[in-house]
Design goal:
Length: 77
C-alpha cells in the first residue's frame, strides 16, 4: 500500500482508491462517494453498518506517516 501511495503522490494525485477485484456490485461512483466524505482522511466504504476495508480512499499525505514493515524494504525514488 505504501508503494502505491508513493507512486500516486509522484503522479500528483491527492488520494488513491482501492477495491478488491472480486467485489460484487461495486458502485460506479465509489471514488466520488469516498472523496465526498473523506475530509482528507482514510475512508472505508460502508454498507448495512459494515465496513469494507478493501474498498477505501487513501490520502497520499499518509506516505509521511506510513513505514515499511521490513527494515530492508526499499521505496521507489
Amino acid at each position: 500500500m505504501l508503494a502505491a501511495l508513493v507512486w500516486a503522490q509522484a503522479q500528483g494525485a491527492a488520494a488513491l482508491v482501492t477495491a478488491a477485484v472480486d467485489t460484487p456490485f461495486l458502485p460506479t461512483d465509489l471514488a466520488a462517494r469516498l472523496l465526498a466524505t473523506s475530509r482528507g482522511r482514510l475512508t472505508l466504504a460502508r454498507s448495512d453498518d459494515r465496513a469494507h476495508p478493501t474498498a477505501a480512499l487513501w490520502p497520499t499525505a499518509l506516505t509521511g506517516t506510513c513505514r515499511p514493515s521490513s527494515p530492508r524494504a526499499k521505496l521507489p525514488a
